[in-house]
Design brief:
The chain has 7 helices and 7 strands. With about 250 residues, it is of the alpha/beta class. The chain is globular, with a radius of gyration of 17 Å. InterPro entries: KR_dom (IPR057326), NAD(P)-bd_dom_sf (IPR036291), Sc_DH/Rdtase_CS (IPR020904), SDR (IPR050259), SDR_fam (IPR002347).
Length: about 250
């Protein structure tokens, strides 16, 4: 269980959902994990979970939509742990509105968090890795809606489509430095954000081949693998974790 021993990995949005599960799994593989989240209490709670299991972790409050704060997060991590081997650019939000009500404020709110934060994490993270001569890994959270349109999600569709291409383009330019860039595209994940309406949740689940919502830990296991040496030949790709959503059309 020491596959990622001595590796230092940042997880944005690490206080809940996919980020939390990924941080826990990375820790079980031996990584030291920085839980970066705007919700400081949630981040500290995940650190406590990891430390209770004899893992190494630290929390950091960050607004990922602000480049200077992401840059400071990178610097702080290296000051604290001495290096940086990976970053999971996972933090994101959603804001559903019909396109004709998608005012600039609503559009930019999602773009700033879901798209620009990924750029900041990639840019400042990669620069630090190159400075330290680290052949690291960057994993970005895209979405099934990075390639499929959804009603009321013009902003989210645009942001996640950008993440898919940023992962490809970043991988191409960073390959000479030994840095891999990959993405994951989750389907409908069973988290509180879906609400408690069972009819709605069942309708979303039905869009997966096996008609079940995907658990955060299922996405986390893919992300954790992508940080491992076993995934060293995967580069520039965004891996669907969607139980077939993108491969068929439900009735």
């Amino acid at each position: 269980m020491t596959e990622l021993n001595e590796k230092v990995i940042i997880v944005t949005g690490g206080g809940s959902g996919i980020g939390r599960e990924t941080a826990l799994q990375l820790s079980t593989k031996g990584a030291s994990v920085v839980i970066a989240d705007y919700n400081e209490n949630s981040a500290k709670a995940v650190v406590a979970e990891i430390e209770a299991a004899s893992g190494i972790a630290a929390s950091y409050k960050v607004d990922v939509s602000k480049g200077d704060e992401v840059s400071a997060l990178i610097d702080w991590t290296v000051e604290r742990f001495g290096t940086l081997n990976g970053i999971f650019n996972n933090a994101g939000i959603g804001l559903v509105k019909p396109f004709l009500e998608m005012d600039p404020e609503s559009y930019h709110r999602v773009i700033d968090v879901d798209q620009h934060s990924v750029y900041y994490g990639m840019y400042y993270g990669a620069k630090k890795m190159v400075e330290l001569n680290v052949k690291g890994t960057i994993v970005n959270t895209a979405s099934i809606y990075g390639t499929m349109a959804a009603v009321g999600s013009f902003n989210y569709n645009a942001a996640k489509a950008a993440v898919v291409m940023m992962s490809k383009s970043g991988a191409l330019e960073l390959a000479e430095h030994g840095i891999r860039v990959v993405g994951v595209a989750p389907g409908f994940i069973d988290t509180p954000i879906l609400g408690e309406n069972e009819e709605v949740k069942n309708a979303l689940a039905a869009q997966h081949m096996r008609e079940k919502l995907i658990q955060p830990k299922q996405v986390a296991s893919v992300v954790t693998f992508l940080f491992s040496e076993g995934a060293s030949a995967i580069n520039g790709q965004t891996i669907p974790v969607d139980d077939g959503f993108l491969s068929f059309k439900s009735k």
